[in-house]
Amino acid sequence: MSERRNVASATQAEVEDFLYREAALLDAWQLDEWLALTTADCSYYVPPNDKLEADHRSTLFTIADNHTRLIERVKRLKDPSAHAEYPPSRTRRLISNVRITGGDGDTIDVAANFVVYRFRRDDDRREFVGHYRYKLRREDGALKIAERRAILDGEELGALGAVSFIL
Amino acid sequence: MNDRYVVEDRTRNTFSLSRETLVSPAVLEKESRAIFDTCWIYVGHASELARPGDFRTRQVAGRPVIFCRDKTGAIRALLNSCRHRGATVCREREGNARQFMCMYHGWTYETDGALKNVPGPEAYGAGFDKRRFGLVPVPRLEHYRDFYFACLDNAAPPLADYLAGAKEYIDLVVEQSPSGRMEIIAGVQEYDIKANWKLLVENSVDDYHLPTVHTTWLNYMKNAGVNVRPPKEEGLLLPSKGWGKDLGNGHLTTDNINFRGRPVARWISIYGEDAKADIEAIRRELVARLGEARAARIADTNRNLIVFPNLALNDGSSVTVRTFFPTAPDRMRVTAWCLGPAEETPAQRARRLDAFLTFYGPGGFATPDDVAALEAVQQGLAAWREVGWSDMSRGMTKPDSEQLNTDEGHMRVFWRRWSELMDRAG
Fold first, then answer.
1. B339-383: pLDDT as tens digits
2. CA spacing 20 to 30 A to B194: which of B108, B149, B155, B336?
């Protein structure tokens, strides 16, 4: 663990570049490459629309994946039998208002706003609006995602239907 | 039963369903009168209103409702419409209130609905009697084991009679709590499906689709070490045997031997080795309280129950309470919660919630594919004038008592009742 100590600092430009690269991988459905950006203990959360600040251990989330389930989610999304995402949706992510909000020497806390447009044939355009909260950690010099929280602004999922791709 | 919506021939074992029932605005308008205005409709659960003054606002059969506990502790369902001009008097999702004040002109109501205060009362004449202007309660509100239902029809039978055989299956859920107190867990899932609401009734209990729609979920289970290979018995498509049952009055259920694990109380590898002893302890409590046979009935079976017309209690990977209303012929709004024993430990609660997300909900490993299937059906139904009928005859060659969960006998129960009520409405 000593290599992680006191190395968790990053410039604004480095963090922005990291988030933009991540968004590009997800929009291109390069999910294995995206998974390589996560730490071995990475978790991914989408809290419910009515309890944005809740704990997934006591509140029903939309998504609460540990790394094992995240790997399974990527397997699923690559399978043509994942009907909700086959053929894969076209998505376009706009990431902005990126801020380094804190850190403890081991992790860097990052917040960013997002709009994810999602298109499918014979379907309306769906706009997922919200903000991300990341915990980034440096491994072998590179930033990695230790925690990723996508918090939607809508009062309910409503017309967005499902969160079937990686938000 | 007339042949307008459903055509059944018991000698030829055919059962056809008019696709008009799934696309027509006229059918939707008629079913809001014939179905939603006459049946007992789920409103909420007592656990959502822990303290006097607690309230939840929600839509029930298209009506805005305040589901609340008044200051004496009584549970109420008040129509959320000011007696003055009609505005909703409570506009928050949930909270605790001493009173409800209309934001338009300030009429104020007690939590039992009584009109408490009107600004400028001197401008009203002698004919204005405040006692006559309380918030109007739903005509009838009754409950079974903390599940509250409203009925808009004063001529309807009591809830306990209406529920018929569904009560036994609600009991199997409630008895998972040592004290008989189940609770709705925080965090609601509200999402739309672009499909007719009746398709979700079918889908909730249709196990025929499991191998095709939920391939990726079965793979996830298999990768986690769960045995998902169907047993070597002729005709079985699923990892375990199950049945589809008629519970009377249009209610129906699947009743399956469990293979997918249960928080109460059947361990699977996905819960982790750490959980094994705890699951065994939960099981021992069940046996001590209810006896070996009843404990096995609860812990070793999964049951997806439909309370006619629009409440699903899916007791599978976890327990979900799911209700849904049409917003258009080709659209519904789904509201789903997770239900668990009130006395669960933090670790048990976390396990239940995690198990829920393996399958259920808009981010689960299965529900999004169900949604995709229903939306594909609805898109195909646009050809209803040329392709007028759907087939629902699977399993009809066997007696009612032998209908499997992968047959369609239980779905036919819903459609017969639906058709009967629609016919009755003329």
1. 999 999 999 999 999 999 999 999 999 999 999 999 999 999 999
2. B149
Distance from CA of B247 to the nearest CA of A (A): 30
* A21 within some domain: yes
| Residue A143 tokens, joined | 């930033």
As a residue count, chain B comes to 426
Count structural domains, chain A.
1
Q: Which of A152, A159, A147 is nearest to A115 (CA)?
A: A152
> Tell me, what CATH number does A128's domain have?
3.10.450.50
Facing residue for A84 by CB, picked from B94, B219, B368: B368
- Tell me the residues of chain A between 54 and 113 that have a Cβ less than 8 Å away from chain B: 54, 56-65, 69, 72-73, 75-76, 79, 81-85
Can you read off the two tokens belonging to residue B217?
A: 């979920």
Please give the structure tokens belonging to residue A33: 């490459």
Range of the domain at A10: 2-160
Split at pLDDT 50, 70, 90, the class of A5 is: very low
The beta-strand segments (E) located in B186-344 are: 189-193, 242-248, 251-257, 301-307, 311-315, 319-328, 331-341
Cα gap B413→B253, rounded to integer Å:
10
* Model pLDDT for residues B290-299, shown as the tens digit of each residue: 999 999 999 9
| Domains (range + CATH), chain B | 41-151 (2.102.10.10), 164-424 (3.90.380.10)
User: Cα separations (Å) of B224 from B110, B227, B252, B269?
Assistant: 53, 9, 31, 6
Cα separation, B232 vs B224, in Å, equals 22
d(CA B141, CA A162): 32
Q: Is B193 on the interface with A (CB under 8 A)?
A: yes
**Which residue is closest to B338 within chain A, CA to CA?**
A60
| DSSP per-residue codes, B266-315 | B--GGG-GGGHHHHHHHHHHHHHHH-HHHHHHHHSEEEEEEETTTEEEEE
DSSP letter at A118? E
Backbone angles phi, psi at B53, to 5 degrees: 95, -15
In a domain, A14, yes or no: yes
Nearest of A31, A24, A56, A29 to residue A147 by alpha carbon: A56
